[in-house]
Amino acid sequence: MSTTHDEDWKSPESIIKASYECISGKAGEERDWARLKTLYAPGARLIPIELATDGTSRPNMMNVDQFIESRSPFLMAENFFEWETERREDRCGSMAHVWSNYEAGRTLHGSPIRHGVNSVQLWDDGTRWWIMSITWDAIAAKKAAGL
User: What pTM value is reported for the model?
Assistant: First the structure.
């Protein structure tokens, strides 16, 4: 797997596309975690809204390594592909906020098993774009898919 993808960082669209590509693949196929790590700024957070043991929803604040550790078992066991279906982007100076609607399936662009929206905050340091944080409602995504 290649970890040098300079084109990943040229725009908010390209870096978000790369993030979907990094988590997508067939069961048993190692994901390109090194590439994923290059997309996120130091200290960046991945924040799924999940169900707590008491049944309430809560944000699960993770750094990139914690995200990889938490998702690797599922992604190694299952075919899982995620792709953007629609987006809304707002920019101000060196920052951008993207609402990235997505679907996920067992094959790329196949029958959706879930869909949702990622809220992505990005920063342009003058040479490239970085993902600062990404938040998604994992509960709503599963409910929308009937899970």
Answer: 0.90
